[in-house]
Fold each of these.
Amino acid sequence: GAGVSQSPRYKVAKRGQDVALRCDPISGHVSLFWYQQALGQGPEFLTYFQNEAQLDKSGLPSDRFFAERPEGSVSTLKIQRTQQEDSAVYLCASSPHNTGELFFGEGSRLTVL
Amino acid sequence: AQRVTQPEKLLSVFKGAPVELKCNYSYSGSPELFWYVQYSRQRLQLLLRHISRESIKGFTADLNKGETSFHLKKPFAQEEDSAMYYCARATAGNKLTFGGGTRVLVKP
């Protein structure tokens, strides 16, 4: 099938819990991006990987956010001690090369109560 | 900081009428600009990019460096054009900066 796959699609967490969001990019895509999309807003950049190297993490809002892509394929976005303001859709996208064409997953909707 | 602005949150037009979605970007060098679209219950996908100068699904977008704009246009809107549209700009490191989005509703 092969589009970008994200899991879980929906996650409800109590404030203070840790969450982990998974992204399976399209096979062979070198670049992987994480975006955060709050309700009624456009996607906001969080972080970018090229293979296993995290080249840009300037968009991570706090040190509670951590992302990894240890083998250059699957990536995990971890949020520690979740807060209500973390409620958003987290989008993963991959790209085969630097063209600006990103292939997005369906997103993981996180709700923090 | 690079900014992309879409001033209209909602555009409502009748089928067959022209539609224009506005996008302005903060000036910096030679921008690489894109329009992405999200149809209902589908994922965000690329609609068109300025560098290819192509028309996709009847949509065109012209880069105006003088006005720092990249407006998206279609002369005759169709009901299937109802969707969320995002203007985006490539910045350093190949990442995209998105505007806030415009919802287009095409009424029959």
Amino acid sequence: GAGVSQSPSNKVTEKGKDVELRCDPISGHTALYWYRQSLGQGLEFLIYFQGNSAPDKSGLPSDRFSAERTGGSVSTLTIQRTQQEDSAVYLCASSLFGPYGYTFGSGTRLTVV
Amino acid sequence: QQQVKQSPQSLIVQKGGISIINCAYENTAFDYFPWYQQFPGKGPALLIAIRPDVSEKKEGRFTISFNKSAKQFSLHIMDSQPGDSATYFCAASMVGGSGTYKYIFGTGTRLKVLA
């Protein structure tokens, strides 16, 4: 696609429920990143996928968070048993290679009530 | 040591003025320093970036100044316009686990340019 596409754009969920957030990267981009942006905060790295290599999960805040990337393209971030502190904007980015010029999607705003 | 400190938190500038946002880092392993611009409801968009082997980079009205010895870098927006009103993030890139090119972001500066 022309840009990084994320869905849904907004998600309201009840505390304790599971949610899935989807990211479609730019076609041909081998690197895919998830970041979290909390109100008034910077962007916090969550997880990185590069081609068929093992993902770097070092930024995932707890074992309630997981992500997968199927076929080297679409990625899904899953948050189990959501808590109120999970409320944030979840941003996906992709790049052709390396750190140069990430392209971000518009994000999914998650609200846990 | 992984932090990137950004200031000010917010900035109000008159149209035509110069906007200056500063960032500082600790880890000398950082080797790529991008600036991102974010409008409400949108994802951040790459504005300009610099490598540590140069002291300045200019693209149109936007200039990055880089001071390697002080471990500081700044964004200058010349002739600021109301359309520049947005949140600006500095970042630093380092190679992490599994060769991750992850960014460490500053906390952002909310810029408002008055018409």
